[in-house]
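Something for you to look into today, if you have time. Just paste the record in under my message, thanks.
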Amino acid sequence: MPEQSSNVEIAHKINEQAHHHSSGNHRQSPLVEIAEATVLAVVAVATAWSGYQATKWDALSNQNYSLAASTNMRAQEKATLAGQDRLYDIVTFNGWIAAQSAGNKTLTTTYERRFRPEYTAAFLAWQKLDPLHNASAPSGPIFMPEYTNANTDESKKLAAEAKGYFEKGVNTRETGDHYVKVSVFLATVLLLTALGQRFDILGPRIVLLVVAFVLLLISTFWIFTFPRA
């Protein structure tokens, strides 16, 4: 990512400037200079790592979002097929009722042969309730517990998978954002280190270095505790 690579370049420039700046001074703080160089080196490595992780998590997030979209599309296709199945079941059942009312046994048999296998199971269970004489029987086979639709079940399954992929996409995106936050902290460390190297007085320089070191520790802790792609 651009901000991570720029942080590394800034770290190198600060280190070079610090070297030229210290050569003009009377070497009053060699330990501070070593500490600053160490901080810059760690910042360079940590920035590269956080940038790498942020990029990978961003790619994983996009992949999960893509899977969520494609899976949701398949779920919608199955839901459409399920609706068509239900409409077919209703139409054929209405035809069967009409034929049954007319006493046309041949036509009722023809409709029964045209029932879908899933619908046939519900139809047979419905007939056992003697619905033509039993007022408490369901209005039709589609209201029976035995009525199932494979496309409906598959649609629900795919919809659940799509939701899972979307949630994964959100989580991976948040993890990538965490690594971007680390890069912001590391950029602040670079700024404080650069400011400190502008001071010839040791006191302010040490204060800025300590603050930068604390921020670096926090950033390093996050890097070690955040998930890795």
About this structure: The first helix runs from residue 2 to 23.
